[in-house]
Amino acid sequence: MILEFVEELIWWRGPAPFVFAPVPQALSDEIRSISKQVTYGWGVIPVKVLIGDTEFTTALFPKNGIYLVPVKSAVQKAEKIKVGDAINVRIEIVGNG
Q: Which of 18, 20, 53, 59 would give a disulfide with 68, using CB separation of 3.0 to 4.6 Å?
């Protein structure tokens, strides 16, 4: 499954501060519909992500009814993006295999 969206980067301090791209509700609902087949536990779903020219692997995780895409600091630097910026995000669900 490949999904694309534009979303504003947010900051969540949680146990470890990180920057995230929230997956829109409708797309989060699509992901949730296949989550049991692709998760490797705790609802976390491995994905390939493309932001700008930077591709990386990470895992979506559920938060308040949607999924969040962690955006690593190396990606933020490479793409010159920060909290509050609207970015284009492409995710490919790779599953637990």
A: 20
Pairing verdict, β 18-22 and 10-12: antiparallel
Please state, in angstroms and as integers, the Cα–Cα distance from residue 18 to each residue in 2, 25, 43, 84, 97, following that order.
Answer: 24, 21, 19, 13, 26
Count other Cβ atoms within 10 Å, centred on residue 93: 18
C-alpha pair distances (Å), 55 with each of 21, 23, 46, 50, 63: 15, 17, 14, 4, 23
Q: What pTM, to 2 d.p., does this model score? A: 0.90
Helix intervals (H) in the chain: 25-38, 73-79
Eight-class DSSP state of 78: H
* Residue 57 contacts residue 93 (beta carbons within 8 Å): no
Burial class (CB within 10 angstroms; exposed 0-12, middle 13-18, buried 19+) of 57: exposed
